[in-house]
Amino acid sequence: MTPLGKMSSVWLTSVSVFLLLLLQQPPVDGELFTALADMEELLETEAVLITNLDNYVQAQEEKLMQLRQKMHEYRREHAEAARDVSAYLSNPVNAFLLTKRLTTDWRYVENLMTYEVGKEFLENVTAYRSVLKFPSDEDLNGAAVALMRLQDTYNLDTASLARGMLNGVQYSTELSAGDCFELGRQSYLNGDYYHTVLWMREAMDRLTGEVNRTATKEDVLEYLAFSTFKQGNIQTALSMTEELLELVPDHERAVSNKAYYVKELQKEAQQKILRGDDGSEEVPVDTTTKIQKEATPHVYDTNERKLYEQLCRGEQQPPIELRSQLVCRYTTNSSPFLRIGPLKLEEVYLRPYIVIYHDVMSDREIERIKQYARPRFRRATVQNYKTGELEFANYRISKSAWLKDAEDEMIRTISQRVEDMTGLTMETAEELQVVNYGIGGHYEPHFDFARREERNAFKSLGTGNRIATVLFYMSDVTQGGATVFPSLHLALWPRKGTAAFWFNLHASGRGDYATRHAACPVLTGTKWVSNKWIHERGQEFRRPCGLQLDHSAEEF
Question: Which PROSITE patterns match (predicted)?
Fold first, then answer.
């Protein structure tokens, strides 16, 4: 048996049992950053790795302890022999022991010294990768992008965020200079030079206060200088590059970049002279004319973006004149079943008519739905407005699963409840979609209904357009995560057990563009929702067509 063999064999036996249990689990997929439900499993992975590392450290310490014992034993015997060499060697027992120490004993020491303690533990990590969830480089990039999104949406100061403070609340430990550097590097890889500069500057500030440095000034300067150049500030980029060259005079890229920056500054100086035909030093350049790109349903203008972010921060709300007309009431929606247990309805907007139903999903139902959804989670997709095909999009970060009524009595009960709430048939409704949002999870402004140019949308269903939406909130969210309607200046904040309802189409069948809405990024906490998209087919007598465009409270 090899040195430490007994301890290693016990450890490997426990690992084998553990791996056997893990292999019984279903296979895992990537894109962990798109759902916090998956991110939770990373803590399990980390716990296993910590245990593995702890056992590796113990094995190393045991190896060093045995070597230290041998060293003390050799030193003691050698010191005794050194006091009187002749007397020591004249003793046949000592002569035998000296010979033994330098043969069999020393071979044991050599074996102990050359024994690779870490090999078995590295093999364990390799085995774990096939059964545990490990984040990929895409997950790292997605998590970094999510932090940038949160920073922009909620106006988070870079220094405060680096201290682990979100909206004035201290949530986590501080980021090191190396952490800030990695955030800047990920932004750089995405071509996001604005955030690269922000985080590289923060990394530089934190470097000055670190005793055990987690990043180098040279690396920070290299990214910072080039990103500053890409933002159009050539002079500052040149200064930073010169500072880098003072630290590393033979830095190949810095030498090349410096020459380029000097050349560009000379060009700028020459252009300034040429602009002033009347002899003036500089003629102002027109920066007000902007060329607007071709619009798509998923691109919104600056004003909508501003409104969206303000609503996410809770800085906007409908005018008091409108809010003063809103009421809360019990309703049966002409349902015989609801007469014995009417629903609690809260009006939140009148035109279009948007309501919140309270206490319409129990904790037990929520947990059952989560239980069904977790194993089926896949990254949420959107429908390409030209081709009708489903595809991933950066403006929707979440994972979703679809549950059929036939799978469980509880799911059928929820569908029936939606029918009672809305007065619409569920025969042509889509399956219950369950969604869990990831790090900074969001869904930017969009329509639930298909516009006229989206000729292929829902074609395969054969049930017409999405006439209405019911959105169940299955969790409270600590900060962020609101559902906002930018054109209405309206924000709906998640409250566990409630459900929002609105019509996507006017009674005429035309889309109501005021229902364009978005899911704000989750700042802290986790957000679970589920929704039923209700289609036109089968609603002919439940919601008759009309020529009046606006739907209102009279329809309920």
Answer: FE2OG_OXY (PS51471)
